[in-house]
């Protein structure tokens, strides 16, 4: 959730594309943790890892001003 807030702190299109989904995911995990566990069981580890890498790449691009 803190990553989402950090991305939104830097106003840009890329910050919103990364920050909003991360922030919503963090809020959902805090409000309904058991439901998030059920949803995570539907997705594969590969897909989760791929999404995490894409998010990390987006944050690196934001941090270095390449986006």
Task: Report what the structure shows.
By secondary structure, the protein is mainly alpha-helical. It has one domain (2-63). Helices cover 84% and strands 0% of the residues. It has four helices and no strands. The longest helix is centred in the N-terminal third of the chain and has 19 residues, at 13-31.
Strand-residue proportion: under 5%
State the order of secondary-structure elements, H for helix, E for strand.
HHHH
How many discrete structural domains? 1
Count of distinct strands: 0
How would the global form be characterised? flat
As a whole number of angstroms, the C-alpha radius of gyration is: 13 Å
Helix content: over 70%
State the major sheet: none
Distance between the termini: 21 Å
Average pLDDT taken over every residue: 75
Structural class: mainly alpha
Given as residue ranges, the uncertain stretches (5+ residues, pLDDT < 50) are: none
What's the tally of helices? 4
